[in-house]
Design goal:
7 strands, elongated, 2 domains, 11 helices, Rossmann fold
Amino acid sequence: MIKNIVFDIGGVLVDFHPIKTLMDMGLSQEQAEELNQKAFAPIWDELDRGVMNREDVFAQMIKNTPVNMKKTAEQFLTNEIFKTVTSRQYSADWLKNLKKNGYKIYLLTNYPDFMFEYHWKNTFSFSDSVDGKIVSGIEKVMKPDHRIYERLLEEYGLVPSESLFIDDREENVTAAQQTGISAIRFTAYEEVKSLMQEKFKISVF
């Protein structure tokens, strides 16, 4: 019987939209995509991993930025980076309903520590429903490394067979299953809700 629901955040409960944020700053879509592709995306994992100093990662991003966009990149990394995340419309009610039906709710996410702290307090619509969280930038280990799943189980005393993990990346779903945790790949909200009901007998309303 499933007692614990473990959620990934990005692509499941929130949207991550650096391109939109850069366009809101005045860049064209082409410029925004170029800046993200050349400067931010190639080493964003280092922010999620949390091993490198954040200022060192930012410095490398600025170094990789085309000269004509360096000022924009600096502004983005100083202030606008926090605007790259928006909670999805369904997220708060989804977690609240699961909580109401007796399930424990946990987060297992690849996320920079400084951004998570800000978004936890200011952006996530679902924080009040969460019983525990494991964040890569704090733990210094990322999915799909099995150690981060084991850290979740150990920290909160969870039984793998009583836990269901939901993530939008296949490699993260597979790693959870290899750790003994049931897992679903997130594709769309309604589809995953139906699968939770049909396969795991989870009441989501």
